[in-house]
Amino acid sequence: MSHPEWLENLHLDFIGLDTRYWLADGRETRRHYLDSAASTLALRSAHHVAGELLHHYANTHSQAHFSARIANHAYAWAHEQVLQFIQADSDRYAAFFAGSGCTAPLNRLARTLAARRPERDVVLASLLEHHANDLPHRKHAGTVIHIPLTGIAPTLGAVDLAALERLLEQHRGRVNYVAISAASNVTGICNPVHEIAALAHAVDAWIVIDASQHLAHAPLAMSDTGAAERELDAVVFSGHKLYAPGSPGVAVVRRALLDGCEPDEVGGGMVEDVHLGDYRITAQFPDREEAGTPNIIGAVQLGAVLNVLQRVGMERIHTAEQQRLRQLLAGLAAIPGLRVYGDPDLDRTPRLGTVAFNLDGLDHGLVAAVLNDYHNVAVRNGCFCAHPYVRELLKPELWALDLDPDAEDAATLIQRRQGMVRASLGLYTTDEDIAALLGGIRDLRAQPEYYRAQYDADSEGNVHHREFATPTETLFDPAAALDRALAQLSASSGML
Ligand SMILES: Cc1ncc(COP(=O)(O)O)c(C=O)c1O
């Protein structure tokens, strides 16, 4: 098929776009999936590649037979796709896979970088980080100091570069690395990662980028200008947020940071030789960083996605998403009593396709439940594993309730009240999806008392519909799916 033809249809090439559910008002409609920041849907053509590879499946630690050679080739191809996707020079950077999302590589990097420079016991992370880019550094790498953001809640912006510079100067000689998200999983707000890299490098600190919320939405390269000081030292991301569910977490790391360091994990496939009293680790990347049998199928599926996205061009994907984002923000801004969090000025504070909001007087749990139960709109609500950031964004509201967001003993009370609703976009998001979200919010806004009366809240603050309860196994039951597959097997064996 020629390039433009498949390109035109790419937004349709996702599994689950036609999934339908029965709703509380008795209608059966198509799901509007607006929870891509949590996990994206699967790109069918990449899934297809993984399915084809299954016919040749073998362990990459085997060498001699055809299938082992195929598995090794495909797995190496997946690493190449990762490096190419973020323009990382393979002579200077190594890509490796770990765990099921970027949490595993972040823990790994925190341990490795702390071991590399134990005398540097401070890590700077921003206030908008997901817990995965905060807690591993607290646990393994020393004292984490949180860099403030620009602006004032609820319209906070990106990392405050002047504050970062001050912190780097104040802790000069002690900052091992700066750990920053390229984009927030709450507001979609982007950080100027290359400028941050230059500031960090000026005091010999390294820079670790959590690109989990960036790479599906906009281009990101190891260096923006080619200038060495602006180059990133490590980038991590989750394949399941990049249209490849079931794929591993990914790290791309400057080889110089890992060279000569004992890898964090040891086991099969990463040693030259093992004696009873000693062992010798291979110098080969990525082998030395990937102890044990890797997730070959998942990695190849992700490699296929990255290949497709490169062919399309991330600039093009970004431009199309920005248009849809502006449409979503404009629609939300037109709804009375709706507050969008984060600086709304896209020119001053660039954002990607993730938006967090609240409706005055309506609990975020109720909003998400009504959107799901009555409009088939899938959004997330809560604190999105970014408690400090969400608490900071909500401060004016919590103060208005006479709650002290910073008081330890207020934590539980605040926990129940704090939270937001998050809608997030993917390549497959349509105008119809956005319209369904906006229509659902307007409907709730028009008759809040009606909807409040449909739900009870439990002691945890979770809301439950009084009458409409769909047991999950009636929506999808793995045992029933297996029975169907086995019935097909019986039918086909009967035909033999
Ligand atoms: C910005 C960011 N970092 C890290 C993570 C953690 O990723 P995972 O759960 O795939 O390990 C997430 C997940 O939501 C995220 O959004």
Automatic annotation (TrEMBL):
Q: Which domain of life is it from?
A: Bacteria
Q: Name one Pfam family in it.
A: Aminotran_5
InterPro entries, from UniProt?
Aminotrans_V_dom (IPR000192), PyrdxlP-dep_Trfase (IPR015424), PyrdxlP-dep_Trfase_major (IPR015421), PyrdxlP-dep_Trfase_small (IPR015422)
Q: Where is the Aminotransferase class V domain?
A: 32-437
According to the UniProt entry, its GO molecular function terms are: cysteine desulfurase activity
Documented EC number(s): 2.8.1.7
Entry keyword set: Pyridoxal phosphate, Transferase
Name of the protein = Cysteine desulfurase
Organism of origin is Candidatus Contendobacter odensis Run_B_J11
